[in-house]
TrEMBL record:
Similarity section: Belongs to the EPSP synthase family.
Pfam (any one): EPSP_synthase
Residue span, Enolpyruvate transferase domain: 7-423
PROSITE patterns (UniProt xref): EPSP_SYNTHASE_2
Entry superkingdom: Bacteria
GO biological process: one example: amino acid biosynthetic process
Name of protein: 3-phosphoshikimate 1-carboxyvinyltransferase
Gene: aroA
Residues at the catalytic site: 313 (proton acceptor)
CDD domains: EPSP_synthase
Top-level class of the enzyme under EC nomenclature: transferase
Pathway the protein contributes to: Metabolic intermediate biosynthesis; chorismate biosynthesis; chorismate from D-erythrose 4-phosphate and phosphoenolpyruvate: step 6/7
Length: 434
């Protein structure tokens, strides 16, 4: 799909879509519980569908409504399929959470991966599972086969590759019979994602104790009792990571009186990406927040320092804001962006180049020399790099920019936000798709 966006700053009010991260976690918790559950979720996306599909393959009965809600009858371990073939699509969270879960269930699985997912890392999770008796075979360009039954024990993982290894292993340890420990050996990035997982597991009755090692890194003791108790009714809250695109659009809206408000996002959410409100305010945007909504309006934007270690998914859209600010914005600790749906430092750099924003791409960072106004953005043709967050960042940049932008491979937005173009139009955005 090619989407052409004509400049027209966005303005208005839009409800947030459901949090993709919470949807994955609650669906998995329901499938591993002792009794059926209804998951209220107002969004269906390719990634959420992938988790539902893999859970079905592992033996859960998952019925999804068109709007996103799901009814789940949990996996019956006495009738688990042996080595099912399951399709993760391009969802890293689905793959990295459900590899250890399949190992804990003992059914194993052949995980099929699409797009860039086969080459996104599963190490060091794979090595740690192997150390505990699991056979994990890589099918180059295709996926992974997991066989064997995980046992309780002492596990450790570095925290600076992907938090999804840690979160997935926590689910696995919670459904074993016995006590395990999981220690973080170095770094701890994307920590908010692990905090969300701990919240969901604890709400599902899992006893988890956290201690700090002398270096300040956590070690968790997880009391595995075979099953979770997620309860009959689970609600997925609004998504800050995707709300960030609309809030950035509000900050870039330029014209007097324009602003964007996103409703249904909790101020006290554990989602790390709620930091977008504070970061836009630091840039100089006008931010208004209530307990359950956030709004952004233009201000005089200035370059700032942004540590991306805990908020990797915000970088592409914040780089666009940096491009419109005056002065230099420096993104640090952003190395993990290279292992997302695209090499996001490279693809964000390509977007900035198209927009005419001077910048330097560093091994683990980005330095952006802003033009002082989004209206100074140039237009032209850009590839979406198969990456939803690049496509959405390009569309928001173009809406506030000075010339039309043609985005090819734009269908990538369906990974997290299938209604993106409708909501873009709802906020007054001008775009056409061919
Ligand atoms: O667990 C999650 O829901 C996610 C964790 C993050 O990945 P990393 O932990 O690999 O940084 C984030 O980038 C991804 O979009 C969603
Ligand atoms: C990186 C992302 O997701 P995942 O790792 O689940 O593929 C994302 O949504 O930006």
């Amino acid at each position: 799909m090619i989407v052409t966006v004509t400049p027209q700053p966005l303005s208005g009010k839009i409800p947030a879509i459901a949090s993709k991260s919470y949807a994955h976690r609650l669906l998995i918790a329901a499938a591993l519980s002792e009794s059926p559950a209804h998951v209220s979720c107002r969004t269906r996306s390719e990634d959420i569908d992938a988790t539902c599909r893999v859970l079905r393959g592992l033996g859960a009965r998952v019925t999804q409504g068109n709007a996103g809600d799901a009814d789940i009858i949990p996996i019956d371990r006495n009738h688990s399929p042996r080595l099912p073939e399951v399709d993760c699509g391009e969802s890293g969270t689905t793959l990295r959470y459900l590899i250890p879960v399949a190992a804990a269930l003992g059914c194993g699985a052949k995980f099929i991966c699409r797009g860039r997912l086969p080459s996104r890392p599963v190490e060091p999770l794979a090595g740690e599972l192997k150390r505990h008796g699991i056979r994990l075979t890589t099918l180059p360009g295709e996926g992974f086969v997991v066989e064997g039954k995980l046992a309780p024990g002492a596990y450790s993982l570095p925290g600076n590759v992907s938090s999804q290894f840690i979160g997935g292993l926590l689910y696995a340890l919670a459904i074993l019979d016995g006590t395990s420990t999981l220690a973080i050996t170095e770094g701890f990035e994307s920590e908010p994602y692990v905090r969300m997982t701990l919240e969901v597991l604890e709400a599902a009755g899992v006893e988890i104790r956290e201690e700090k090692r002398p270096e300040g890194l956590p070690v968790w003791t997880v009391i595995g009792r075979g099953k979770l108790h997620a309860g009959p009714e689970l609600v997925v809250e609004g998504d800050w990571s995707n709300a960030a695109f609309w809030l950035a659009a509000g900050a870039l809206a330029g014209d007097e009186g324009k602003s964007v408000e996103v409703t249904g996002i909790r101020r006290n959410s554990l989602q790390g990406d709620r930091a977008v409100a504070e970061i836009l305010a630091r840039f100089g945007a006008q931010i208004l927040q209530t307990e359950s909504a956030a709004g952004a309006a233009p201000g005089s934007l200035r370059g700032i320092e942004i540590d991306a270690a805990q908020i990797p998914d915000l970088v592409p859209i914040l780089a666009v804001v940096a491009g419109a600010a005056s002065g230099t914005t420096r993104f640090t600790n952003a190395g993990r962006l290279r292992i997302k749906e695209s090499d996001r430092l490279k693809s964000t750099s390509a977007l900035l180049t198209l927009l005419g924003v001077p910048h330097e791409e560093e091994p683990a960072g980005l330095v952006v020399h802003g033009l002082g106004s989004a209206r100074a953005f140039r237009g032209g043709d850009i590839d979406g790099f198969g990456d939803h967050r690049i496509v959405m960042a390009a569309a928001v940049a173009a809406a506030s920019g000075g010339a039309p932008v043609r985005i090819s491979g734009a269908e990538a937005f369906r990974k997290s936000y299938p209604k993106f173009l409708e909501d873009f139009a709802e906020l007054g955005g001008l775009c056409s798709a061919e």
